[in-house]
Amino acid sequence: MGPLPRHAFARRVGRKGTTREPIIQEPEPHEPEGFEPEATRRDAGVAESARANRGWWDRNADEYQVEHGTFLGDDRFVWGPEGLDEVEAELLGPPEDLKGRDVLEIGAGAAQCARWLAAQGARPVALDVSHRQLQHALRIGVSFPLVCADAGALPFADGSFDLACSAYGALPFVADPRLVLREVRRVLRPGGRFVFSVTHPIRWAFPDEPGPEGLSVSSSYFDRTPYVEQDDEGRAVYVEHHRTLGDRVRDVVASGFRLVDLVEPEWPAWNTAEWGGWSPLRGNLLPGTAIFVCERD
Q1: Which member of 113, 132, 198, 256 lies 3.0 to 4.6 Å from 61 by CB, making a disulfide possible if both were Cys?
Q2: Average per-residue pLDDT in the chain?
Q3: Helix, strand, coil % (nearest 5) of the chain?
Q4: Which pTM was predicted?
């Protein structure tokens, strides 16, 4: 996925037993040993959010892929931590209809979703802001283009794609989601579909904890102040933006899309995993993911 989290839930993962070995050449140095960012709620604009999150994903891509690579698979299209699979959901359309379609995956991470699309006969392009994430896509292997770019300034001509998708990619991390949505609409052909998943907005009202402590409201659902982690000098090193469900709908419509479905996946009985604040306990009571199915007229 642009991965999974590609996401709000990517940021708050705890260390668990890993199932994969570390993989490619050493990345650039992380923050100094023992560095602990300060978590706060404050404004963060487009440029600051982009810089912080590009750096965060470059620094944390290795840990993310080791931690969650088994769940994501190498060529599986999962919409969120609930495990809703595109094979079953068909939100982009029946798999047999994907053959020959030009598809843009935004926030692709290691390009797991794009790899699945290619296996269906589609012609995917996998885009991510993080160079390190795309190195992991190369490690697994690709037969399609990888593009390192910001989702708010897509380096493609108008009408380049039939479909676009994003599984927790880009949209939770940008200060102005309409910039991304308008860019996606621009590169889609008339009648094109864009499907994206994000953290369900209601989750912002609850602590990001998988156990009983995560079931009591701790903040206002209507507080849209970004979640920011910053260094000792007040520079953001990670930013996540909250939009209410109504905000998301208005963003979609104002950007020239028609919203044709809003999917809130239920937690399946087979999924016993915990992922940050996601868990069977919470998943049976609260929606964790919202998937927006949009079409360009």
Answers
A1: 132
A2: 90
A3: 30, 20, 45
A4: 0.90
